[in-house]
Amino acid sequence: MDPEVQKLIQREEQRQEEQIGLIASENFASKAVLEATGSVFTNKYSEGYSRKRYYAGNEVVDDMEELAIERAKKLFGAEHANVQPYSGSPANMEVFFALLQAGDTILSLDLAQGGHLTHGSPVNFSGKGYRFIHYSLDRETETIDYDKVAEQAAQEKPKLILSGFTAYPRQVDFKRMAKIAAEVGAYSMADISHISGLVVAGEHVSPFPETDVVMTTTHKTLRGPRGAMIMCKEEIAKQIDKAVFPGMQGGPHNHSNAAKAVAFAEAMTPEFKAYAGQIVRNAKALAEGLKQKGFRLVSGGTDTHLLLVDLTPKKVTGRQAQLGLEKAGIIQNMNMIPYDTRKPFDPSGLRLGTPGVTTRGMKEPEMEKIADFIDRSVQHIEDDAYLEGVKQEVKEFATKFPVYR
Ligand SMILES: *Cc1c(COP(=O)(O)O)cnc(C)c1O
Hints:
This protein is of the alpha/beta class. The chain has two domains: 31-267, Aspartate Aminotransferase, domain 2, CATH 3.40.640.10; 270-398, Aspartate Aminotransferase, domain 1, CATH 3.90.1150.10. Helix content is 44%, strand content 14%. The protein has a seven-stranded mixed β-sheet with strand order 4-10-9-8-7-5-6, sandwiched between helices. Strands 11-12-15-14 form a four-stranded antiparallel β-sheet. The protein has a two-stranded parallel ribbon with strand order 1-13. Strand 2 and strand 3 form a beta hairpin.
């Protein structure tokens, strides 16, 4: 009944099929997840929690939400799970709201070094409502110096210490971070939005059981619907639940929560474990391929799903590269690198991730091919005709690995 929107959906599907998507936070949800997202659960209001709703008619929603919670707890080994958060940003606000008073001190990594907007950026609600102190990466290794974080924690006495990032290519020692927090009487919080799929597959060290509260989005490496969840120790479960509802949200998005349950079941399979392993192998292969072509990688490489490329040696800026590669059908994003001398709207770096291309079935040989596409495009970054040629090659290459077709 709506050919206009139908056309847009078809165009977007075609774009996803024909381009190479390397946005580190993106993925392709399964048809089962899409189906649950498009289900009749979207029609139901159910403010409150299972068996304690403010509306009638929730017996099925209650069963569904309980199933999602049970699967989440089993998948992550968590004591408590709240699957209602609409997305990662509100979920982070909900954790702060649950555990802190306005103006309390939080120790986190700066946005410019790989933290998230909601980890205290001055333009974000987090930065306005709380006092953020930032730790920084070591200049030499471009990784976290845990001794320095411990020193800073002892000095600043934060109420909460936050780890988990958006542009950090290395493993995070969550156990060490939780220990640092415990030593100064702070809550430990891990935001594993990017890496939760790797965590459940054992490809990244888990923040459980040490960390007090863990937030993750469900749509990144976990490959579920857009949304988020908060997991925590039993002793703070009531505070977390109250902060989500009625503290911050109204009616839960039941269609998303049903799809989260589907994604959790998928993530428990051996296929998903193999998938997560391949994500990391692909990221390493892409890193190697780029290094061989003279690109510099922040921290020298990766042990996750993402890489941060420093374009300085290529004499191209992040913005130039993002726009030029887009013309070649390669979708990624410009990004600040640690101690970047350039500005966020035209930084020195490019962030690349392999969750999406791995879902398509691509493996190490394809990563070499992608490194070649990127290298040739960067060499001809101002040559639109050349980039158009690469775009045709990319289309032919990408459509050999169909997503939904
Ligand atoms: C993606 C992300 C978020 C926010 O998620 P949205 O769903 O986009 O609001 C929060 N924290 C981290 C570390 C993320 O990577």
